[in-house]
Input
Amino acid sequence: MSNEKPSHNGIIEKLTPIEKKILLECGKMNISIKKNVREETIKKKMPDAYLKDFNKSIKNLIAMGLLVVYRPHNYGLSKEGRLISKRIKESYQRDFYSSLKILMIVE
Output
C-alpha cells in the first residue's frame, strides 16, 4: 500500500475552472497562511459567471486542504495550496505572455 499524495499536476487536473481561478487570484496576491484574504476580495476579481458556484468551490478547496479558514470569510493558502497556486500562476503567465514575446521579436 502506498500512502503517496497525488502529484500537483494530478490535483490541478481535478480542479474545476472556478477553483483554478480562485487559486490563480490567491497566487497573484501572494496569499499564505500568515497573509490571508477576505472572501469579498476574491469575489471582486472573479467573472460574474463564476459567482454562482463560488461558495461550493471554496468549500471544495477547504476540503482538499488547499485553502485554510483563518477567520469566518477570511482565507489563507496551505503549504500545498501555495505550491499549486504558484504552478497555476506560472502556467497562466506563460500562456498569457507567449504572444507578447512574438510582438517583441516583430518590432
